[in-house]
Amino acid sequence: MISPRRSDGLFDFADIFNTSLSLADQPGANVAKAVSPQTYIDGIDQSSFLLADKGVSNRRSIFYFWNDELSAVRVDEFKFMQKVQVADSVTRRGYNGGFSGTLQPTWTGLVFNLYADPKEEESIAIRHIPVSVPLVAELRRYQAVLKQYPPRHEISLK
Description:
The structure is a single chain. With 158 residues, this protein is an alpha+beta fold. It has two domains: 8-59, no CATH class; 60-149, Arylsulfatase, C-terminal domain (2-Layer Sandwich), CATH 3.30.1120. Helices cover 25% and strands 22% of the residues. The chain has helices spanning 15-23, 29-33, 47-51, 129-148; strands at 61-66, 69-75, 78-86, 102-113. It has a four-stranded antiparallel β-sheet, with helices on one face. Strand 2 (69-75) and strand 3 (78-86) form a beta hairpin.
């Protein structure tokens, strides 16, 4: 039984696959047997995080995408954004009828402390440059993974 509690630990949708297999007594190497060798398994087994009384997340980072474009990474409470949405770049805010803005690269990247600024209203990148170093390193690491395992787009009309 998973006890309800509050946590600020990271948990990604991709973790559901690995965690579910682990809870079904199929952890570790058995996860790799469930998919083809050409498929990168992005999930992490989070069963210890969910089941322990004071469980700690096994995930250290989360990646954000706009469609198939890698736009940001979060490590702990910090988020580095290299692409941002400008919601009112086409129509006035409030009259969009859904997202009708643009996606734009940032000039130097934006960094937010999500604990101090959960609405992402003020970038701390220029004042806290050392914070960017592990964030950018994690983003580059994942970009290398995407080169090794490029996304496959399959469209079916069936």
